[in-house]
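Internal tracking record. Fields below are filled automatically when a chain is submitted to the structure queue. Please do not edit lines marked as system-generated. If the sequence contains nonstandard residues, flag them in the REMARKS field before resubmitting.
Queue: standard
Priority: normal
Entity type: single polypeptide chain
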Amino acid sequence: MIRFAYPYMLYALALIPVFWVLHFLLMQRKRRIMSRIGDPEVVSRLMGGVSDARKRIKFLFFSLAWASLVVGAADPQVGSRMENVKRKGIDMVIALDVSNSMLAEDIKPNRLERSRQAISRLIGKLEGDRLGMVVFAGKAYMQMPVTTDYAAARLMLSTVNTDLIPVQGTAIGDAIELASGSFDDNDHQKAIIVITDGENHQGDAVDAAKKAAEKGIIVYTIGMGLPDGGPIPVFQGGRQTGFKKDKQGNTIVTRLNDEMLSEIAAAGNGIYVRANNSRAGLDGVFKEINALEKSEIESRVFSDYEHRFQYFLALAVLFLLTELLISSRKSRLFSSINLFNTQK
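SYSTEM-GENERATED OUTPUT FOLLOWS
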């Protein structure tokens, strides 16, 4: 399989027809000028054997050099073959709460940012495991299907914020159900990691965790927040303008729902860990997950792509050197030879 690292560079190939049109127009202009000077045959002899055919050949090599240079700049890459890659790991889906209460700063810098940092560290520790991501607030959405593409996982994680879902709430049950349905129908160990503060919980999350456990999926919960809680910042234009207030004008304090998250983990045969300012909780959960028996995961992928730009750059240099070495004038050695001269 062939691909280009910078395919937009190939648009420069469209300049080759433009070059040829300009070359043709210049040659036509030259002929018109010569015809004004005098007899074209006499003028041609006076010009010392300048050959139009040689100029066309020189321009052909210039065009080939340009084409090679453009293809080289596009960096063609070759995947040598499709091969089966086997690795041992488990399938896991992280369900991340992105409701506004996750902006509370009782855990520094805030609950959501601390969750993202912890997930990023987790991705760095994965070896062969497959990872997916669900985001939820009042509704749950699939952010990333289960994959071994950790670079894509980091990219998706970087886009997570509280603006992803306009409907506020904490639909943990919907998130667990969506995560459960995202796994392939195989015998691999499966786990769901719910990261939330659990506040404004809606739906039957405990029942969803029980159903997941019946399918062999373990549900872990991580509580982001402190028992004393914290206010929810309000932002306008990227700047904090205050804290969220209720109808009476009192500042709303969001608190961690320890009891609910413990019940969900128990129903899902997992464990509950509370995060704080010294640890985010994922390390403890990851140790539990690593203790699970890992299955062999097989996938078909192209082997590493190999760069081939150097060959095209070498061709470009070769064509340019050839163009420079070809003289516009006829060689003195062969100028006296006329194979088509029938006169004796």
